[in-house]
Amino acid sequence: MYKPLTDHKVLVFDVYATLIDWEAGIYKALEPLLSRFPPSVRWTRDEALLAFASVEYDLEVQYPGMLYSDLLSKIYEVLAERLKALAGDEDGQGVVGNNADARSAIPGESAASTSSADAGSPPLPHRVFAESIRHWPLFPDTYAALQTLSKHFKLVVLSNVDRVSFGYTHALLSEEPNPDPTSSPSLYAPPVLNSGQYWFPRTLVHSKSPFSLIMTAQDTGFYKPALEGFQTVLETVRTNNALLAGQGPGGRDLTLEEVKEKVLIVAKSIQHDIVPAGKLGLRSVWIERPGTGAATGAVREGGWTWTYKTLGDFAEAVEAEKSTGVPGPFTGSFS
């Protein structure tokens, strides 16, 4: 059944690849490693990102409970071992140049602020890589689009990261322009883990966060595309007063099926977001960012309800629909 964009009440966002330029961030952080080995020196950016994504997916399946920052460390180590083998250099001696200053993977990072086995030694390269997530940049249209969309919807995050890592991204998305995301204020940090509290940043005084709820893989216990993470979000949206609790007839809570009619998934990732949304009977907006598709999967036969080139285009379509009452064009099918 057809349903205008603005009949929905909640947008659930993928972040890395949709709001954050995941590919630019990952590739910049990988460059010091890739430059060490003859095979990877010749890799294109696309080849490097696809190599990263293949390892990432395997490890997410193998270690569903691993924190994402630890997963990034493990990805780096696995890639390093594979590159050594490709170079025919099991001892790691036949590298190109050297990697003495691994800190270059994180601009402005110091040894004191990066995890290390010895506080007086240089930061370990795999940990430098893991912490690069705090420097992954926003797409140019992200901040303004979120400000626009937050006027019309409750915004929710469902992301395959850990809470601490997302705290830096959260500050960037909330306080842009923020020249130093490493100084993430406590206002945008997550609540204490195991406190029984989910992350509702807009309930805090002075918060500029556009998000009503943030859920990471650390909160749900599952990496997307597992359906359980989406189901946890839907149940929290259904029962929490900051979202849709009590909005049924007579002030009752909505049923799960009623909530699904009000929720829209917004994502770049076909594999991680659009496909599971379809399996759960949720409508979706595919944000067709350019790139390799390393983090997003093949386009396949579609599955989304609307598609826009950028988040800014999507926000403009919402504004136009609100002001004119005329629904915009759509691609895909309605259920």
Order of helices and strands: EHHHHHHEHEHHHEHEEH
Q: What does the average pLDDT come to?
A: 84
Question: What is the CATH class name of the largest domain?
Answer: Alpha Beta
Which topology of the largest domain does CATH recognise? Rossmann fold
Q: How many independent structural domains?
A: 2
Largest sheet: 6 strands, parallel
Q: Give the helix/strand class.
A: alpha/beta
Approximate shape: globular
- By DSSP, the count of extended strands is 6
> Helix content range of the residues, please?
25-40%
CATH homologous superfamily annotation of the largest domain: HAD superfamily/HAD-like
| Through-space gap between termini | 5 Å
Low-confidence stretches: 90-94, 96-117
Secondary-structure arrangement, i.e. CATH architecture of the largest domain: 3-Layer(aba) Sandwich
Strand order of the largest sheet: 3-2-1-4-5-6
Query: What's the helix count?
Result: 12
Rg is: 21 Å
Q: Classify the beta-strand content into a percent band.
A: 5-15%
Detailed description of the structure:
This is HAD-like protein. The chain is of the alpha/beta class. It folds into 2 domains: 5-21 and 137-324, 3-Layer(aba) Sandwich (Rossmann fold), CATH 3.40.50; 22-135. The chain contains 12 helices and 6 strands. The protein has helices spanning 22-34, 38-41, 45-62, 68-86, 125-130, 142-149, 163-175, 217-220, 227-239, 256-260, 270-279, 311-324, and strands at residues 10-13, 154-159, 211-216, 263-267, 283-287, 306-308. A 6-stranded parallel beta sheet has the order 3-2-1-4-5-6. Helix 6 (142-149) packs parallel to helix 12. The model is unreliable at 90-94 and 96-117 (pLDDT under 50).
